[in-house]
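Consider one such protein record:
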Amino acid sequence: MNWWRRLLLLPAITLLVAASTPVLVPDVSQRKVDIIYSFTGAELLLFGAILYPGGRIPSQDADIVVVLRGPSEALTVREKQKLGGLIWVNAASARFMSAPGYYAIASSRPLNKLVNERTAAIYELGVENLQLSPASGEQPDAQRRFERGLIDLRARSHLYAEAPGSVEITDGVLYRARLFIPARVPVGTYVAETFLVQNGKILAVASRDVQINKSGFERFVAESAKHYPMLYGLSAVLLSLLLGWSAAVLFRRI
């Protein structure tokens, strides 16, 4: 067959492959979450549908994994050490270049029953598979210790969470999952990803963006600290002095 005939057949082959692949149609309950002074957290609903070729649902049900991931940041994790049995001081430390500020994952079944370790590592499914990009040059054992420490700290703050078995699938087509966003969540652009899994393989992936931003007075304070750090610092010091002086005058009169 001539090369030009093969070239003409490529679009037809592509269409056939696409027609045999399931498609995910995901969505989220809120595309934008505003953080105000009274914000105590929010619950985000991730839902959608699985579209199968020809509308035929396979006899073997597929599984769903949803991930909500916040913006990554560089940070340093420090290890505390007790000095003289009295006070705690900073000892060793490790630096990470791309630790997500928030990471939550939910699945229709436990991850170890859905995919193997290699697939989970490739798609970063599960907090233990996050690519944190260590940059401190620590020994492997020490690096793993710091990674576990970082994950534990963020899990206790509800910034890292896993919810196996919490994704509901209806009639093999519709799915839904709820993920909690804590009050002290970092702001920025979040990515809600949905994975369709069957027989240990990722069949389809789809994503939606979610914006989490501060609004009102909180936004004003955050923007001021970011764009005018010196003025913000001076204002904070003056405000503290003013409040201290006002309290002293008040208690003197009492």
User: Anything to note?
Assistant: The helical segments are 3-19, 117-122, 140-156, 217-227, 229-253. The chain is about 30% helix and 40% strand.
